[in-house]
Design goal:
84 residues, mainly alpha, 434 Repressor (Amino-terminal Domain), 5 helices, elongated
Length: 84
């Protein structure tokens, strides 16, 4: 299990649920149907809930190669036009 000072990881969820990290990934990514049993999926979701697991969005974005972020460049935020 993760130390108290760090967020729980998918590895922690897998250990708590007694499954592989691949099973955790399938269940939490909602791609488990036909690959993981309903009982196992329920156990993984319960372990994630009990541990307070939240996906690391920065890591996911790096893995997927996209951020869904828009960059807006303006000359100055102090002008009335852009400040509003």
């Amino acid at each position: 299990m993760a130390r108290a000072s760090t967020r729980p990881t998918s590895r922690d969820v897998a250990q708590a649920a007694g499954v592989s990290q691949a099973a955790v990934s399938l269940v939490l990514g909602d791609k488990w149907r036909g690959r993981v049993s309903e009982t196992t999926a329920r156990r993984v979701r319960q372990a994630a809930h009990d541990l307070g697991y939240r996906p690391n969005l920065a890591a996911r974005n790096l893995r997927l190669g996209r951020t869904r972020t828009v960059l807006l460049v303006v000359p100055a935020l102090t002008t009335e036009f852009f400040a509003g």
